[in-house]
Design goal:
Alpha-Beta Plaits; nine-stranded mixed beta sheet; 18 helices; disordered C terminus; binds S-adenosylmethionine
Length: 430
Amino acid sequence: MALYSAAAAVLAGLERGDGGIKALVYSSGFPRVRQLYALVAETLRYAPVLDAVLDGAALLQAERKLPPHLAKVLVYDLLFGKGLQCGGRWKALARRHRARLRAELARLKVRRRVSRDEELLAPAAGAPAPALPRYVRVNTLKTCVEDVIDFFKRQGYSYLGKAASVEELSSLSGKKFLLDLHLPELLVFPPQTDFHNNQLYTSGHVILQDKASCLPAFLLSPAAGSHVIDACAAPGNKTSHVAAILKNKGQIFAFDLDTKRLATMNTMLMRAGVTSFELAQQDFLSVDPRASKYSKVTHILLDPSCSGSGMVTRLPTAEAAPGAERLQALAAFQRRILSHALSFPALRRLVYSTCSVQQEENEDVVQAVLQEQGSAFRLVNVLPSWPCRGLATFPGAECCLRASPAETLTQGFFVALLERCGEEAAACRP
Ligand code: SAM
């Protein structure tokens, strides 16, 4: 795929909440990941300026076939980047509008009383994203925590033992690392530690996964031998975590709509040594809960598309709260897919999670679906030591977990564990 199309696809994925910038760039299949990352990051940094220029020049109205994300990338490169060195027919199109776009940029600078391009960026847009630790999940299908600790020690890292507090995680620096205080198979290294070329990562012995995104599988905790559905599974980090918890015993049915992400997922699961899975490119809403194949499904992990507003490694401009209309559409989809998941007859436990911080996609979805279910399911009060709870928008919402860079040193995240009534657990009724 050409550079500009690949960048536009990553921007679209970010907007849909398909993942963070790094994950999307790495799973794009584009060979020059650094170049792609830089172009996406810079386009995001300039996004408000690009929106203003595109609006002023009415480019999308003039070129109705030009996809909006691609327009942003092209105009970024034309005005602020390398000046459209590639791009085929799109390059010719953007060049036709070059004079108009440049004039619009000049007008914007006059209006904002600045002379340099950089001055157009609001201070917040230039601020660095909060530095989160590098979390490393040990893949227990291939190794164990002790062996991984020994490996890193041999690579010159000092192991400081199990962390006692979130503050301890935030004070890590240099070549030191800790065992996480909440998740038993998670190691914590200082921010920016890069293990993408480390042999433990390339061989699938460890998975680079944010701590918050390890919560869903950890909380679902299916017993070895269980049948589990991962309803919106790609690119599959949570699926591989579920497989590790199952010790590869049992069956995982994983669904996703996106072919490319499924291909990446397949490679990732093979690398992680996951054997007990079946991947399907299928709309989970079209999966028949009554099919005999799923008659033993007792656990479902549901991590649907969301606004992604909690992802801090997306650059600040991408974090802006999603518009009301988009939120409404996402929440309607999330309610529908959660209701559908709860209709599997043998289901006992379900984890609902998002990387969104919007109440509409989180507490509101859980509350609406629980109400619709009557007393069939209830919320489980998980991980009492977790400091950040669901917003108190309905009785029992505190059973849910929230995560944020400030309070838990993770991406912004939401997790709820639902259990069929009658199952043993400490439960909160909404
Ligand atoms: N759980 C994944 C992981 O940890 O790697 C991330 C999932 S991502 C937040 C949401 C995924 O849902 C996207 O890959 C998207 O393609 C998929 N998706 C959206 N609508 C879907 C549907 N109706 N059925 C199945 N998958 C869907």
